[in-house]
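Open question from group meeting: does this chain pack into something compact, or does most of it stay loose? Before anyone orders reagents, we agreed to write out a predicted structure and look at it together. Recording both the input and the output here so the notebook holds the full record.
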Amino acid sequence: MKREQRAHRLALTLLTAAVIFVMQVLAVGISAVVVTVLARAGFLSHGETDRVVVFMALISVVLGAMITAFSSLIFLRPVNRLVSQMNRLAQGDFRARITFGKPLRDHPTFREIADSFNKMAQELENTEMLRSDFVGNFSHEFKTPIVSITGFAKLLKRGELTEAQRQEYLDIIETESMRLAAMATNVLDMTKVENQTILTDVTRFNLSEQIRSALLLLLEGKWRNKEMDFSLEFGEHMIMANEELLKHVWINLLDNAIKFSPQGGTVDVEIQERGESLAVTVRNTGSRITPEQMEKIFHKFYQGDESHATEGNGIGLALVKKIVQLHEGEVSAESGDEATAFTVTLPRKQPAGGN
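C-alpha coordinates returned:
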Protein backbone atom coordinates (compact mmCIF):
# COMPACT_ATOMS: atom_id res chain seq x y z
CA MET A 1 0.00 0.00 0.00
CA LYS A 2 2.81 2.43 0.93
CA ARG A 3 4.73 1.52 -2.24
CA GLU A 4 1.61 2.28 -4.28
CA GLN A 5 1.20 5.64 -2.52
CA ARG A 6 4.84 6.54 -3.21
CA ALA A 7 4.33 5.64 -6.87
CA HIS A 8 1.27 7.90 -7.10
CA ARG A 9 3.16 10.79 -5.48
CA LEU A 10 6.15 10.31 -7.76
CA ALA A 11 3.82 10.36 -10.76
CA LEU A 12 2.28 13.62 -9.49
CA THR A 13 5.76 15.14 -9.02
CA LEU A 14 6.78 14.14 -12.56
CA LEU A 15 3.52 15.54 -13.92
CA THR A 16 4.13 18.88 -12.17
CA ALA A 17 7.70 19.01 -13.48
CA ALA A 18 6.43 18.23 -16.99
CA VAL A 19 3.88 21.05 -16.80
CA ILE A 20 6.58 23.51 -15.69
CA PHE A 21 8.86 22.32 -18.51
CA VAL A 22 6.07 22.75 -21.04
CA MET A 23 5.50 26.31 -19.76
CA GLN A 24 9.17 27.13 -20.21
CA VAL A 25 9.26 25.64 -23.70
CA LEU A 26 6.09 27.52 -24.55
CA ALA A 27 7.56 30.80 -23.34
CA VAL A 28 10.77 30.27 -25.34
CA GLY A 29 8.79 29.21 -28.41
CA ILE A 30 6.54 32.28 -28.29
CA SER A 31 9.53 34.60 -27.82
CA ALA A 32 11.31 32.94 -30.75
CA VAL A 33 8.26 33.49 -32.95
CA VAL A 34 8.07 37.14 -31.86
CA VAL A 35 11.76 37.73 -32.60
CA THR A 36 11.43 36.01 -36.00
CA VAL A 37 8.45 38.20 -36.93
CA LEU A 38 10.29 41.36 -35.85
CA ALA A 39 13.38 40.34 -37.85
CA ARG A 40 11.36 39.70 -40.99
CA ALA A 41 9.59 43.03 -40.53
CA GLY A 42 12.94 44.78 -40.55
CA PHE A 43 13.03 45.85 -36.93
CA LEU A 44 16.04 43.58 -36.25
CA SER A 45 18.91 42.94 -38.67
CA HIS A 46 20.69 39.61 -38.95
CA GLY A 47 23.93 41.14 -37.73
CA GLU A 48 22.50 42.30 -34.38
CA THR A 49 23.01 38.94 -32.70
CA ASP A 50 23.47 40.33 -29.19
CA ARG A 51 20.34 42.43 -29.39
CA VAL A 52 18.36 39.44 -30.69
CA VAL A 53 19.53 37.19 -27.86
CA VAL A 54 18.83 39.82 -25.18
CA PHE A 55 15.46 40.68 -26.65
CA MET A 56 14.52 37.00 -26.90
CA ALA A 57 15.57 36.42 -23.26
CA LEU A 58 13.51 39.38 -22.03
CA ILE A 59 10.44 38.22 -23.90
CA SER A 60 10.93 34.68 -22.54
CA VAL A 61 11.14 35.96 -18.96
CA VAL A 62 8.07 38.17 -19.30
CA LEU A 63 6.00 35.52 -21.05
CA GLY A 64 7.20 32.84 -18.63
CA ALA A 65 6.20 34.97 -15.65
CA MET A 66 2.77 35.67 -17.14
CA ILE A 67 2.13 32.01 -18.02
CA THR A 68 3.35 30.83 -14.60
CA ALA A 69 1.22 33.39 -12.75
CA PHE A 70 -1.86 32.41 -14.72
CA SER A 71 -1.19 28.69 -14.25
CA SER A 72 -0.55 29.18 -10.53
CA LEU A 73 -4.07 30.50 -10.10
CA ILE A 74 -5.29 27.14 -11.37
CA PHE A 75 -2.78 24.86 -9.63
CA LEU A 76 -2.90 26.70 -6.29
CA ARG A 77 -6.69 26.66 -6.13
CA PRO A 78 -6.84 23.23 -4.41
CA VAL A 79 -4.04 24.30 -2.06
CA ASN A 80 -5.94 27.45 -1.11
CA ARG A 81 -9.06 25.35 -0.55
CA LEU A 82 -7.10 22.99 1.72
CA VAL A 83 -5.60 25.90 3.71
CA SER A 84 -9.05 27.47 4.06
CA GLN A 85 -10.54 24.28 5.49
CA MET A 86 -7.54 23.82 7.81
CA ASN A 87 -8.15 27.33 9.14
CA ARG A 88 -11.76 26.36 9.85
CA LEU A 89 -10.54 23.37 11.84
CA ALA A 90 -8.05 25.56 13.73
CA GLN A 91 -10.90 27.90 14.68
CA GLY A 92 -12.94 25.01 16.11
CA ASP A 93 -15.30 24.37 13.20
CA PHE A 94 -15.01 20.59 12.98
CA ARG A 95 -17.64 20.37 10.25
CA ALA A 96 -15.02 21.45 7.70
CA ARG A 97 -14.63 19.01 4.81
CA ILE A 98 -12.64 19.17 1.58
CA THR A 99 -13.49 18.02 -1.93
CA PHE A 100 -11.49 18.54 -5.11
CA GLY A 101 -13.02 19.12 -8.51
CA LYS A 102 -12.26 17.10 -11.61
CA PRO A 103 -9.72 15.93 -12.66
CA LEU A 104 -7.88 16.27 -9.32
CA ARG A 105 -10.39 14.23 -7.31
CA ASP A 106 -9.72 11.26 -9.60
CA HIS A 107 -5.98 11.32 -8.89
CA PRO A 108 -5.01 8.87 -6.09
CA THR A 109 -2.81 11.42 -4.25
CA PHE A 110 -5.47 14.12 -4.12
CA ARG A 111 -8.07 11.50 -3.21
CA GLU A 112 -5.78 10.40 -0.35
CA ILE A 113 -5.41 14.01 0.83
CA ALA A 114 -9.16 14.55 0.83
CA ASP A 115 -9.88 11.24 2.58
CA SER A 116 -7.23 11.84 5.26
CA PHE A 117 -8.39 15.39 5.93
CA ASN A 118 -12.07 14.44 6.10
CA LYS A 119 -11.31 11.49 8.38
CA MET A 120 -9.31 13.74 10.69
CA ALA A 121 -12.11 16.32 10.76
CA GLN A 122 -14.70 13.60 11.49
CA GLU A 123 -12.61 12.24 14.36
CA LEU A 124 -12.18 15.72 15.82
CA GLU A 125 -15.91 16.34 15.52
CA ASN A 126 -16.69 13.03 17.25
CA THR A 127 -14.16 13.74 20.01
CA GLU A 128 -15.60 17.19 20.57
CA MET A 129 -19.11 15.76 20.84
CA LEU A 130 -17.92 13.08 23.27
CA ARG A 131 -16.00 15.70 25.27
CA SER A 132 -19.09 17.90 25.56
CA ASP A 133 -21.15 14.92 26.67
CA PHE A 134 -18.44 13.93 29.12
CA VAL A 135 -18.37 17.37 30.74
CA GLY A 136 -22.12 17.20 31.33
CA ASN A 137 -22.10 13.56 32.43
CA PHE A 138 -19.06 13.92 34.64
CA SER A 139 -20.47 17.04 36.27
CA HIS A 140 -23.64 15.11 37.06
CA GLU A 141 -21.74 12.03 38.28
CA PHE A 142 -19.43 14.20 40.38
CA LYS A 143 -22.21 16.28 41.88
CA THR A 144 -24.40 13.35 42.95
CA PRO A 145 -22.03 11.85 45.56
CA ILE A 146 -21.11 15.31 46.84
CA VAL A 147 -24.79 16.08 47.47
CA SER A 148 -25.20 12.71 49.23
CA ILE A 149 -22.13 13.26 51.41
CA THR A 150 -23.24 16.77 52.34
CA GLY A 151 -26.79 15.68 53.13
CA PHE A 152 -25.86 12.74 55.35
CA ALA A 153 -23.10 14.73 57.04
CA LYS A 154 -25.71 17.32 58.04
CA LEU A 155 -27.95 14.59 59.43
CA LEU A 156 -25.07 13.21 61.47
CA LYS A 157 -24.26 16.68 62.71
CA ARG A 158 -27.78 17.14 64.09
CA GLY A 159 -27.49 14.08 66.29
CA GLU A 160 -30.55 12.34 67.80
CA LEU A 161 -29.91 9.26 65.67
CA THR A 162 -30.02 5.62 66.57
CA GLU A 163 -26.78 3.69 66.29
CA ALA A 164 -28.15 1.80 63.29
CA GLN A 165 -29.01 5.06 61.48
CA ARG A 166 -25.64 6.54 62.33
CA GLN A 167 -23.84 3.48 60.95
CA GLU A 168 -25.97 3.49 57.79
CA TYR A 169 -25.21 7.17 57.09
CA LEU A 170 -21.50 6.64 57.68
CA ASP A 171 -21.53 3.70 55.27
CA ILE A 172 -23.20 5.86 52.61
CA ILE A 173 -20.65 8.64 53.11
CA GLU A 174 -17.82 6.11 52.85
CA THR A 175 -19.27 4.59 49.66
CA GLU A 176 -19.84 7.95 47.99
CA SER A 177 -16.35 9.15 48.97
CA MET A 178 -14.82 6.06 47.41
CA ARG A 179 -16.91 6.67 44.30
CA LEU A 180 -15.53 10.22 44.04
CA ALA A 181 -12.00 8.98 44.56
CA ALA A 182 -12.42 6.35 41.82
CA MET A 183 -13.67 8.95 39.33
CA ALA A 184 -10.79 11.31 40.09
CA THR A 185 -8.28 8.46 39.86
CA ASN A 186 -9.58 7.37 36.46
CA VAL A 187 -9.26 10.89 35.07
CA LEU A 188 -5.74 11.30 36.48
CA ASP A 189 -4.69 7.87 35.21
CA MET A 190 -5.96 8.65 31.72
CA THR A 191 -4.13 11.98 31.67
CA LYS A 192 -0.92 10.32 32.82
CA VAL A 193 -1.08 7.47 30.31
CA GLU A 194 -2.02 9.74 27.39
CA ASN A 195 1.18 11.74 27.93
CA GLN A 196 3.32 8.58 28.06
CA THR A 197 4.92 7.41 24.82
CA ILE A 198 7.56 5.00 26.16
CA LEU A 199 6.84 2.03 28.41
CA THR A 200 8.84 2.23 31.64
CA ASP A 201 9.21 0.18 34.86
CA VAL A 202 9.05 -3.14 33.02
CA THR A 203 9.42 -6.14 35.35
CA ARG A 204 8.75 -9.86 35.20
CA PHE A 205 5.73 -10.96 37.26
CA ASN A 206 2.95 -13.54 37.50
CA LEU A 207 0.11 -12.35 35.27
CA SER A 208 -2.25 -15.06 36.53
CA GLU A 209 -1.78 -14.01 40.12
CA GLN A 210 -2.34 -10.36 39.23
CA ILE A 211 -5.71 -11.14 37.62
CA ARG A 212 -6.80 -13.31 40.56
CA SER A 213 -5.84 -10.52 42.97
CA ALA A 214 -7.83 -7.95 41.01
CA LEU A 215 -10.88 -10.20 41.09
CA LEU A 216 -10.72 -11.52 44.64
CA LEU A 217 -9.33 -8.55 46.54
CA LEU A 218 -10.25 -5.39 44.65
CA LEU A 219 -13.70 -6.29 43.29
CA GLU A 220 -14.97 -8.79 45.84
CA GLY A 221 -17.64 -6.50 47.26
CA LYS A 222 -19.16 -5.85 43.84
CA TRP A 223 -19.48 -9.41 42.62
CA ARG A 224 -20.60 -10.82 45.95
CA ASN A 225 -23.56 -8.40 46.02
CA LYS A 226 -24.70 -9.72 42.63
CA GLU A 227 -24.26 -13.37 43.63
CA MET A 228 -22.15 -14.03 40.54
CA ASP A 229 -20.24 -17.12 39.47
CA PHE A 230 -16.65 -16.97 38.20
CA SER A 231 -14.63 -19.33 36.06
CA LEU A 232 -10.86 -18.82 36.02
CA GLU A 233 -9.57 -21.19 33.34
CA PHE A 234 -5.83 -20.66 33.32
CA GLY A 235 -2.58 -21.88 34.79
CA GLU A 236 0.42 -19.83 35.84
CA HIS A 237 1.75 -17.40 33.22
CA MET A 238 4.70 -15.02 33.59
CA ILE A 239 5.03 -11.80 31.61
CA MET A 240 7.43 -8.87 31.15
CA ALA A 241 5.38 -5.68 31.48
CA ASN A 242 4.56 -2.65 33.61
CA GLU A 243 2.79 -4.29 36.53
CA GLU A 244 1.06 -1.15 37.81
CA LEU A 245 -0.37 -0.22 34.40
CA LEU A 246 -1.63 -3.73 33.61
CA LYS A 247 -3.44 -3.79 36.94
CA HIS A 248 -5.64 -0.96 35.63
CA VAL A 249 -6.45 -3.06 32.54
CA TRP A 250 -7.78 -6.03 34.53
CA ILE A 251 -9.61 -3.88 37.08
CA ASN A 252 -11.45 -1.99 34.33
CA LEU A 253 -12.31 -5.08 32.28
CA LEU A 254 -13.48 -7.08 35.30
CA ASP A 255 -15.36 -4.11 36.71
CA ASN A 256 -17.20 -3.71 33.40
CA ALA A 257 -17.97 -7.44 33.24
CA ILE A 258 -19.46 -7.37 36.74
CA LYS A 259 -21.29 -4.10 36.16
CA PHE A 260 -23.07 -5.23 33.01
CA SER A 261 -23.82 -8.79 34.11
CA PRO A 262 -27.32 -9.57 35.41
CA GLN A 263 -27.97 -10.72 38.97
CA GLY A 264 -26.53 -14.22 39.30
CA GLY A 265 -24.59 -13.87 36.05
CA THR A 266 -21.28 -15.45 35.10
CA VAL A 267 -17.83 -14.04 34.31
CA ASP A 268 -15.19 -16.24 32.66
CA VAL A 269 -11.50 -15.36 32.47
CA GLU A 270 -9.16 -17.29 30.17
CA ILE A 271 -5.46 -17.02 29.40
CA GLN A 272 -4.16 -18.62 26.21
CA GLU A 273 -0.64 -18.90 24.85
CA ARG A 274 -0.33 -17.65 21.28
CA GLY A 275 3.30 -18.04 20.23
CA GLU A 276 5.27 -15.23 21.87
CA SER A 277 2.08 -13.60 23.18
CA LEU A 278 -0.52 -14.17 25.88
CA ALA A 279 -4.23 -13.60 25.17
CA VAL A 280 -6.46 -12.78 28.15
CA THR A 281 -10.21 -13.00 27.53
CA VAL A 282 -12.80 -11.62 29.95
CA ARG A 283 -16.29 -12.84 29.06
CA ASN A 284 -19.57 -12.02 30.83
CA THR A 285 -23.22 -12.89 30.35
CA GLY A 286 -25.59 -10.04 29.78
CA SER A 287 -27.07 -7.73 27.19
CA ARG A 288 -25.53 -7.48 23.72
CA ILE A 289 -23.41 -4.53 22.60
CA THR A 290 -24.79 -3.20 19.32
CA PRO A 291 -22.50 -2.73 16.28
CA GLU A 292 -22.96 1.05 16.60
CA GLN A 293 -21.80 0.95 20.22
CA MET A 294 -18.96 -1.45 19.37
CA GLU A 295 -17.43 1.17 17.07
CA LYS A 296 -17.23 3.68 19.93
CA ILE A 297 -16.61 1.72 23.12
CA PHE A 298 -12.85 2.42 23.12
CA HIS A 299 -13.35 6.14 22.51
CA LYS A 300 -12.55 8.40 25.41
CA PHE A 301 -15.64 9.73 27.24
CA TYR A 302 -18.04 7.35 25.46
CA GLN A 303 -20.71 5.68 27.62
CA GLY A 304 -22.79 2.90 26.10
CA ASP A 305 -25.43 3.27 28.83
CA GLU A 306 -26.95 6.60 27.82
CA SER A 307 -29.45 6.42 30.69
CA HIS A 308 -26.52 6.48 33.17
CA ALA A 309 -28.25 3.82 35.21
CA THR A 310 -24.85 2.21 35.75
CA GLU A 311 -21.82 3.90 37.26
CA GLY A 312 -19.05 5.03 34.96
CA ASN A 313 -17.57 8.01 33.18
CA GLY A 314 -16.48 6.64 29.80
CA ILE A 315 -12.76 6.52 30.56
CA GLY A 316 -12.13 2.89 31.57
CA LEU A 317 -11.98 1.21 28.14
CA ALA A 318 -10.08 4.14 26.59
CA LEU A 319 -7.53 3.72 29.38
CA VAL A 320 -7.36 -0.03 28.69
CA LYS A 321 -6.68 0.54 24.99
CA LYS A 322 -3.94 3.10 25.61
CA ILE A 323 -2.15 0.88 28.16
CA VAL A 324 -2.33 -2.14 25.84
CA GLN A 325 -0.94 -0.05 22.96
CA LEU A 326 1.95 1.07 25.17
CA HIS A 327 2.75 -2.63 25.63
CA GLU A 328 2.58 -3.09 21.82
CA GLY A 329 -0.45 -5.32 22.25
CA GLU A 330 -4.01 -5.39 20.95
CA VAL A 331 -7.46 -5.27 22.54
CA SER A 332 -10.66 -6.37 20.80
CA ALA A 333 -14.29 -6.98 21.70
CA GLU A 334 -17.11 -9.17 20.42
CA SER A 335 -20.68 -9.43 21.59
CA GLY A 336 -23.50 -11.89 20.96
CA ASP A 337 -27.02 -12.33 22.26
CA GLU A 338 -25.96 -13.88 25.54
CA ALA A 339 -22.34 -12.83 26.18
CA THR A 340 -19.73 -10.15 25.61
CA ALA A 341 -15.99 -10.83 25.51
CA PHE A 342 -12.95 -8.55 25.62
CA THR A 343 -9.60 -10.03 24.58
CA VAL A 344 -6.24 -8.45 25.39
CA THR A 345 -3.22 -9.83 23.53
CA LEU A 346 0.18 -8.92 24.99
CA PRO A 347 3.75 -9.90 24.09
CA ARG A 348 5.38 -11.96 26.84
CA LYS A 349 8.53 -9.85 26.60
CA GLN A 350 8.97 -6.17 25.82
CA PRO A 351 11.58 -5.04 23.25
CA ALA A 352 15.04 -4.21 24.53
CA GLY A 353 15.17 -0.68 25.90
CA GLY A 354 11.59 -0.78 27.19
CA ASN A 355 12.72 -0.56 30.84
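Observations to bring back to the group:
The first strand starts at residue 202 and ends at 206.
The chain has ten helices and seven strands.
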